[in-house]
Recover the amino acids of this structure.
């Protein structure tokens, strides 16, 4: 694939805007390693021709990628891939579908509830919002074969991701949907063990109080909060593995 090959998107999905598509294409090439640190991004006029859009649309996408720390824009020289500060975090953000398929089990996802509402004090704390703001709250379940694998409770800032307000999330889980549409620059994980509460236990088909692993993740794009998600796994069905190398 050359620098100016436009990535094909799978059929059957609602087409994203050109701005979102350019963001997604360039982000995917950087995160996958296809475009390594130091690689020159095609010039604005080249991207404009490749996507049949205005240079203003291209400039908007490149500016957002620069704010997220994924590329560096140099006057007269063009734009280049930066070595992301969050590179280790990129490697630790797993798609649950990939986790399930790696177990040799079929995967499916079910949306339990979807609410667009004014953010509460808890939402502001979870997302790190400075003041009142609208959010979308999504409750969903990921399955490994016939069994529930993971419960997901997610809030998304509609100030940062306004297009989420009209996305039904009926077919695609919110995690991969967000990754495909908005570049993130910082992620934070919090991991704890607890006895699962009754409501989540019923959805996971386990007894209330069963030991569970809770993984909370918050992500930002530049300095704007994107989402906070809380994954709950039955403690005997999931483990976390980290690999370290000496720092220099």
């Amino acid at each position: 694939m050359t620098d100016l090959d436009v990535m094909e998107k799978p059929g059957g999905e609602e087409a994203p805007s050109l701005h979102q598509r350019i963001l997604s294409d360039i982000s995917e090439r950087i995160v996958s390693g296809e475009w390594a640190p130091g690689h020159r991004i095609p010039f604005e006029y080249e991207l404009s021709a490749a996507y049949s859009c205005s240079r203003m649309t291209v400039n908007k996408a490149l500016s957002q990628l620069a704010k997220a720390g994924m590329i560096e824009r140099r006057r007269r020289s063009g734009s280049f891939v930066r070595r992301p500060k969050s590179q280790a975090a990129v490697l630790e953000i797993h798609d649950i579908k990939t986790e399930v398929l790696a177990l040799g089990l079929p995967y499916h996802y079910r949306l339990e509830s979807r609410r667009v509402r004014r953010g509460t004090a808890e939402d502001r704390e979870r997302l790190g919002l400075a003041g009142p703001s609208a959010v979308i709250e999504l409750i969903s379940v990921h399955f490994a074969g016939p069994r529930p694998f993971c419960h997901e409770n997610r809030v998304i800032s509609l100030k940062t991701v306004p297009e989420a307000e009209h996305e039904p999330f009926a077919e695609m889980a919110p995690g991969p949907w967000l990754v495909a549409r908005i570049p993130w620059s910082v992620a934070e994980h919090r991991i704890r063990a607890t006895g699962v509460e009754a409501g989540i236990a019923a959805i996971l088909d386990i007894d209330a109080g069963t030991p569970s692993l809770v993984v909370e993740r918050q992500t930002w794009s530049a300095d704007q909060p994107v989402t906070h998600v809380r994954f709950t796994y039955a403690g005997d069905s999931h483990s976390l593995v980290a690999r370290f190398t000496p720092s220099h």
Remarks:
- Strands lie at 40-41, 71-74, 78-81, 107-118, 134-144, 147-157, 186-195, 211-221, 224-234.
- The first strand starts at residue 40 and ends at 41.
